[in-house]
Design a protein that fits this description.
Elements: E1 2-3, E2 7-8, H1 17-26, H2 40-55, E3 62-63, H3 65-81, H4 90-93, E4 102-109, H5 112-121, H6 123-130, E5 136-144, E6 147-155
Parallel strand pairs: 3-5
Antiparallel strand pairs: 1-2, 1-4, 4-6, 5-6
């Protein structure tokens, strides 16, 4: 979702037999139910996005713990419902920040590398990942039954 006078909503659902078959092996048994902690997965997604940005000649995004907590809350809601969906009021997520444009990517899948690849193959998700106007990032990952529910928030 992008806020800049217009609203574009995109969603990308990663449900395939390929991903479903590898999901259980990609997550430790202790992560079988969703958890609320800063994870290696969240750090991995941040690294993957910043690596893609640097490769495309963009600046790296600054990690925001507060934005990540808000992203994690949305991921937890998606996990509880068993599906992905965009935040209905993205401006509320960005409350308390100084910003002029924001974006959101959501997805679900077996691991961060597979999700990042899917995001980069989707034109709207790729656009958010590489948008020159964004400066901050928040990533929230919640695992449920071996599936990662991911929310990535972007701010100018």
């Amino acid at each position: 979702m992008r806020l800049a006078g217009r609203r574009t909503i995109v969603s990308f659902l990663l449900l395939s037999t390929l991903f479903a078959g590898s999901a259980a092996a990609a997550v430790p048994a202790s992560a079988a139910t969703h958890t609320f902690r800063r994870t290696v997965a969240e750090a991995r997604m941040t690294v993957l996005i910043n690596r893609a940005r640097l490769h495309a000649g963009r600046h790296a995004l600054q990690y925001s713990a507060l934005l990540s907590r808000r992203a994690r809350a949305h991921s937890a809601l998606m996990a509880s419902r068993g599906t992905i969906f965009h935040t209905t009021n993205l401006a509320n997520v960005f409350r308390g920040f100084s910003w002029s444009i924001g974006g959101e990517n959501v997805g679900m899948g077996p691991n961060m590398d597979a999700l990042h690849t899917a995001f980069m193959l989707s034109p709207h998700h790729r656009e958010n990942n590489l948008d020159r106007r964004f400066h901050r990032i928040g990533v929230g990952v919640v695992w449920k039954n071996g599936v990662a529910f991911v929310t990535v928030e972007f701010l100018s």
